[in-house]
Amino acid sequence: MSLNAPESSGGVRPFCVIDELVVDVSSASVYEHGWQSWSPTTTYSLGESPHRPVSEHYRVIAYRGSQVAPTNAYQGEGLLAVDVGDGRTVLYVAADPRVDVASIRIATQGDRLVVLADGPVVRREGDGGIDAALVAWAGDVALEQSVPDSRVAPTLWCSWYEYWTEVTEADVIENLEAMDSLELPIDVLQLDDGYQAGMGDWLSLSDRFESLPTLVSRIASHGRRTGIWTAPFLVGSASRVAAEHPDWLVRSLDSTGAEGSPVNAGHNWDQHLYAMDTTHPGARDYLREVFTTFTDWGIDFFKIDFIYAGAVHGRRHDDVSGVQAYRSGLELIRESIGEGYLLGCGAPILPSIGLVDAMRVSPDTDPEFDHESGDLSQPAQRSALLTGRARQFMNGRFWLNDPDCLIARPEVERRMKWAAHVKATKGLVGCSDRLLGLDDWGLETTRTILAEAKERQVRLGYGLGPGGVL
Predict the structure, then answer these.
(1) In this predicted model, what pLDDT tens digit does every residue of 194-243 receive, in sequence order?
(2) Average pLDDT of span 323-340
(3) 95: which strand partners?
(4) Do the Cβ atoms of 58 and 383 come closer than 8 Å?
(5) What does the CA dihedral 208, 214, 215, 217 come to, rounded to 10 degrees?
(6) DSSP of 82-102
(7) In angstroms, rounded to a whole number, what is the distance separating the alpha carbons of residues 125 and 92?
(8) Mean pLDDT score, 305-334
(9) 8 Å CB contact between 260 and 251
(10) What is the mean pLDDT of residues 157-168?
(11) Distance between CA atoms of 401 and 362, rounded to whole angstroms?
């Protein structure tokens, strides 16, 4: 059943009433789906307050910018579900998230729920509760959109949660050798943030690295593959790309429609962040150069992060919506890496369907259980558990879910609980400790969870190559 609200190419759009529901107030619940990987996603009892950003900074980098969700209503981005309390579940979903992702809002009026949307929506009904309805919907979407079968994920080690932005080539080599001495079943050694000279300058190295091609060859000599992190749709204000190619940036629009300054895509790494215009010919050539160069060097695992920036509202070279520009950029990367494995992160969830092999389905984890801000979009185990569990239905249907890395060193709070979540996801499995710093429990847990992931590969008949399907 299609329910139509006004269509638009982006920006703030009016909400229109599309439906009403009568519910059992004592037992009804609402599933609210967030915009991107880090946006809080969970099910609420009717009347329970939804999670909202605690600051403008967090709103920009972790929530949908074009339609700010109210504090007194539930709002799903392209997906909202209601268990009405009598065994029925009603889903409201974007008609085609490859083109338009409607914001869907519910206002409560006693035992009546008024449903509003700002774009095309389809209404579905099902039995068996919200979880069963989401599983059925995801299966149908995978068929309707001809989503490729999920590829078996390699196991990996990631530099981030031990070394952060200060990772060095020596750190990488130490852990490469430790994988051998500890006999850990790791396929891919993934360099995370810190190897590059600047945000946007992906082919220029920091002074802590000498040569990526040489490092890739050294990793290969140990029988392992190399992965790399980028934030391809972000451009830091301090980068060479921003200085030399300001025309590659998405521009804001004033009230008259005139072009303004670069769109605010957040603030991090002690600088303002801008959005890459993925429709600009020069920017597209640059993105293609980055990823084909990495591929030519022998890198075949790609974590692309902060990619919400590709969908921000603003003026681009081509007159397309943010969602269309985002998919265009993702398709370009997909084409450039060939058979490489693609992991999305900080990604608009529904517009990514069919274009990535694995997807971070939650905020980052962290050695600490709670984030000091209390914002459940920010790095913390609690944040990652909440949203990761709420998106488990996507695993093996849209992609393999990435719950984020196992971190098992002694100083990690509630490390047993976090390890259990990584294990239960049965998706992409990576670890991110200094391997020689693990205690007995941490090392044995890391080995066991990696080994279980390898057993899934073997059971399905695939080796260490980048191909294979579930």
Answers:
(1) 999 999 999 999 999 999 999 999 999 999 999 999 999 999 999 999 99
(2) 98
(3) none
(4) no
(5) 180
(6) EE-SSSEEEEEEESBTTTB--
(7) 9
(8) 97
(9) yes
(10) 98
(11) 9
Give residue 48's pLDDT.
96
Instruction: Provide the 8-state DSSP code for 193.
Output: T
Identify the active-site residue in 118, 193, 305, 375: 305
364 is annotated as an active-site residue? yes
67: its two tokens: 């339609």
Q: What are phi and psi of 338, to 5 degrees?
A: 60, -120
Rounded Cα distance, 398 and 138, in Å: 7
DSSP sequence for 88-157 = EEEEEEESBTTTB--EEEEEEETTEEEEEESS-EEEEEEESHHHHHHHHHHHHHHHHTTPPPPPPPPPEE
Alpha helices, DSSP H only, in 263-380?
281-296, 322-336
- Average pLDDT of the segment spanning 320-326: 97
Per-residue burial over 24-60, b if 16 or more Cβ lie within 10 Å, else e, is eeeebbbbbbbbbbbbbbbbeebeeebbbbeeeebbb
**pLDDT tens-digit profile of 405-462?**
999 999 999 999 999 999 999 999 999 999 999 999 999 999 999 999 999 988 765 4
Q: How confident is the model at residue 374 (pLDDT cuts 50, 70, 90)?
A: very high
Of residues 277, 300, 364, 366, which has the active-site annotation?
A: 364
